[in-house]
Write a structure and sequence with these properties.
By secondary structure, the protein is of the alpha/beta class. It has 15 helices and eleven strands.
Length: 467
């Protein structure tokens, strides 16, 4: 499977640029206020005293920008809307900063942070941030385009809306997608669009396999519920995000959001909590802290388990297996070996079951106590996995389940976990896959830091179907 290219602008360059611009704009405001010949009633403060306040300015602004989702920019969004949000966020930041200056006494001999400087900083920062973001986003777009990193889009339909979209693809140069082509629907002749025609909708599965787009945009509104469901499930099997131009407003549900895309109103599945960069950052900090600490603190337990496994049976202590993780990427998962080294030579890949004869004596205990999973702390530290998330499955089973279980591949939109919402409810081993997926999707769509902590705490008591 391909590695999905992000339809979002990277967060870190924006934060770094904003921090630099805010700091430089604050310095510029100081010199304009106190060193440009403007009248000053109570003396000129030293620059070192003023510079000590600048970090607080940056922190307040960055936090407010985050609240306004200015670090979750999706390609395809008009820059005018982005500038409007920037104006609102910076205005709120200035209100907060000016409110803080009222904690200073107006009778002090010297104010460390002049209200006039706040106003000058606001004007200078707004101009610099707008220009800086415009140039940075344009640079990132060109950089991604040169290196073939732009997210790719496939358009379903060749009617008037598709024709309108094909024209906008050539003009929307700030936030970019690569247009792969068009798929004509039943009853369309495929004429009128400026782009390659890739075939009919009846071959959608083959087209997705061949071209592997990052997103699909459905512009054809005259579809039955069954046909629409077929398209949704086909996109889900191939882990492709689907957008819909909303002629079918009666089908809007709580799981769908409406947003602008290149000047068109579209429907798409609601953004997941972990689609937001800040939430991923918080979750990664938790993963790094707990996995690193766990590897150190549990080192004596690791050594004891190694001794027990070696003493119980011949063969390697660690078991390495290929699994499918976030966005369909494959990686090696590590466990303490709990089965014979020839466990699947005759049967081939099979799911574990209760009283599984393939287990070793110590392996039965390790699986029942979940201790066999501890080496995956290394996977978490490396970033292949998270502490909490849907359990990763082997490619052999993934290739089966994605056709047999609706929305199975949607569980791969987040990192796989050592434990998960399904596991603490006993859905593991040879339990119904459809039910397990239902729990996994609940976690994916309702993630919160508190939910992760709850799952981690309950994991130690979750031994049901641990075999």
């Amino acid at each position: 499977m391909r590695r999905r290219r992000s339809p979002k602008v990277p967060m870190l360059p924006l934060i770094l640029m904003d921090t630099v611009i805010l700091a430089l704009s604050s310095m510029e405001a100081y010199f304009l206020r106190f060193r440009a010949g403007l009248p000053v009633r109570k003396g000129i403060p030293e620059f070192s005293e003023y510079a000590a306040i600048i970090p607080y300015v940056c922190v307040v602004c960055i936090l407010v920008f985050w609240l306004y989702h200015l670090y979750d920019i999706r390609k395809g969004e008009p820059y005018t809307e982005h500038f409007s949000d920037l104006f609102k966020a910076l205005s709120l930041s200035v209100v907060i900063l000016m409110a803080l200056t009222f904690f200073q006494s107006p009778y002090e001999e010297r104010l460390l942070y002049s209200r006039y400087v706040v106003g000058i900083t606001y004007a200078v920062s707004l101009a610099n941030l707008a220009l800086g973001r415009f140039l940075l986003l344009k640079f990132l777009l060109r950089w991604e385009k040169r290196r073939d990193l732009l997210p790719t889009m496939l358009v379903l339909g060749t009617g008037a809306k598709a024709e309108q979209l094909s024209q906008r693809f050539s003009s929307a140069r700030l936030f970019g997608y690569e247009l792969m082509g068009f798929v004509h629907m039943d009853g369309e002749d495929g004429q009128g669009v400026a782009g390659p025609l890739l075939g009919g909708v009846e071959r959608l599965g083959e087209i997705l396999d061949k071209y592997r787009p990052d997103e699909v945009l459905l512009t054809h509104g005259d579809l039955s519920r069954g046909d629409l469901l077929d398209i949704i499930l086909e996109c889900d099997r191939h882990m492709v995000e689907l957008r819909i131009v909303p002629d079918l407003l009666d089908m809007v549900t709580s799981s769908v959001s409406i947003e602008a895309f290149m000047g068109l109103t579209t429907m798409r599945m609601k953004e997941l909590p972990l689609d937001r960069a800040f939430n991923r950052f918080v979750k990664r900090i938790l993963d790094l802290g707990m996995s690193g600490t766990g590897l150190v603190v549990l080192a004596p337990l690791f050594l004891a388990i190694v001794w027990c496994v070696k003493r119980d049976s011949s063969g390697p202590v660690l078991y390495k297996q290929r699994r499918v993780g976030q966005d369909g990427r494959r990686f090696n998962i590590y466990k303490f070996r709990s089965m014979r080294i020839d466990a699947e030579e005759e049967s081939g890949p099979v799911l574990a079951e209760e009283h599984d004869p393939r287990r070793t004596k110590i392996g039965t205990f390790l699986r029942k106590s979940n201790l066999d999973e501890l080496p995956q702390l290394w996977n978490v530290l490396r970033g292949n996995m998270s502490l909490v998330g849907p359990r990763p499955e082997r490619p052999y089973f993934v290739d089966q389940f994605k056709y047999d279980v609706p929305r199975y591949m949607s569980r791969h939109r987040v990192k796989s976990g050592m434990t998960g919402w399904a596991q603490i409810h006993g859905l593991r081993g040879n339990t119904p896959i459809a039910e397990r997926v239902r729990y996994d999707l609940y976690y994916v769509e309702n993630w919160s830091l508190w939910l992760d902590i709850r799952i981690l705490l309950k994991t130690f008591l979750a031994t049901k179907n641990a075999y």
